[in-house]
Known about the structure:
Blueprint: E1 16-25, H1 30-42, E2 49-54, E3 60-69, H2 72-84, E4 88-91
Helix pairs in contact: 1-2
Amino acid sequence: MSDSKQTPEFEMEFPQRFAVKAMGEAGKDFESHVTALLLSTAEQDVPLAVAARESKNGKFTSVTVDITATSRQQLDNIYQALTDDDRVLMAL
C-alpha cells in the first residue's frame, strides 16, 4: 500500500464562460492589446465582456476579458501567450 496522497484533478466542463485577467503597465492601448492577443489565441471574434481598471496610483492597468472557453488546451494556450508577452506582467 502506498502512502502517497493524490490530489484529484479539477475537471471543467466545456464550453463555459471564463474570465481571463492580465495586468501590465498603464498605457492608452493596453486594454486593446490584451483583448486582441487573447482573442487571437482563443480563436474568437468577439469577447463576451471586457473591463479595465487602473491601479490607485495609475501606474498599472488590469484587463478582464470574458470568453467562451471550449477546452483546457485553449485556456493553456491563452495563458501561455499572455505570460510570453512582454507587456503583460501577470495573468490570472
